[in-house]
Specification:
The complex is a heterodimer. Chain A contains twelve helices and four strands. By secondary structure, chain A is mainly alpha-helical. The two termini of chain A are about 20 Å apart. By secondary structure, chain B is mostly helical. Chain B has one helix and no strands. Chain B starts with 7 loop residues before the first helix and ends in a 14-residue tail after the last helix. Classes of the chains: A mainly alpha, B mainly alpha. Chains A and B meet through helix 4, helix 5, helix 8 and helix 9 of A and helix 1 of B.
Chain lengths: ~210, ~25
């Protein structure tokens, strides 16, 4: 349970009307309303201000507010469109919308590209890819030799960096994903297809409020 | 699959930090 009733969420900074959010995302109005409860719960889990702070995001993902993770940081930063260190309700809905099964293929490919462009240079560079591989190995308690890591990164670059300039641009990324569609499999959350069916408690909540 | 049979992006796409489905687990 969150710290605000859905009606008082409307006084939270960054609140946006569900009808407007539904118009520009893959969600219906009732789905946006259903996501109130989840947003409310996460945004009040540590700091009861109706905004999702990074520690709250980590707590929701890992059940541990102190567990740092490079990729979770990247997702948080991309959701935090205003770059003010918190995820507001509208940002949460827009961010999650990319993961909706009905969201466009292009939006998923672009989101993944921005996710992996760690330093926001407009390219995925070799050092960034190596940093991500190292982060994944660390997270997974996997130990590979330095030579093997270099080999994995080199091999990937030789396949993806088709013009051989040492960085992967968006066109090269699109081409690489088209040959390896599993790369964006995690950009789709089947849960989001029917939130109201998957989370009937959300429906009951929003129906009660609609009838008030 | 072994890390050695995957390309680097397939490897990193398995990160738990990218599994937003866990946001929906009660």
């Amino acid at each position: 349970m969150g710290c605000f009733a859905s009606k008082s969420l409307k006084r939270v900074p960054g609140y946006e009307e569900p009808t407007l959010l539904a118009a520009e995302t893959a969600f219906s109005v009732s789905e946006v309303e259903a996501l109130f409860e989840l947003f409310n719960k996460i945004s009040c889990s540590i700091i009861r201000d109706g905004l999702i702070h990074k520690e709250e995001f980590q707590l929701a993902l890992f059940r541990n507010q102190k567990r740092r993770n490079l990729f979770a940081d990247r997702v948080f930063d991309l959701f935090d469109y205003k770059r003010n260190g918190v995820i507001e309700f509208g940002e949460f809905i827009r961010g999650l919308s990319v993961f909706h099964p009905n969201a466009s293929y292009d939006s998923k490919v672009s989101f993944a590209y921005r996710l992996y462009d760690l330093r926001n240079t407009g390219f995925i560079e070799r050092e960034e890819l190596k940093e991500m591989v190292l982060a994944l190995l660390h997270e997974s308690d996997l130990v590979l030799s330095e030579d093997l890591i270099e080999l994995i990164v080199d091999k990937t670059f030789s396949e993806a960096d088709s013009n051989g300039d040492g960085k992967i641009d968006l066109e090269e990324w699109k081409e690489f994903v088209s040959k390896n569609p599993s790369l964006i499999r995690n950009m789709t959350l089947p849960y989001l297809k029917d939130i109201t069916g998957a989370f009937p408690s959300f429906v009951e909540q929003s129906e009660v409020e609609e009838s008030e | 699959a072994s890390p050695l049979t995957m390309n680097a992006f397939q490897l990193i796409s398995t990160s738990q930090g990218l599994n937003l489905g866990s946001l929906f687990e009660k």
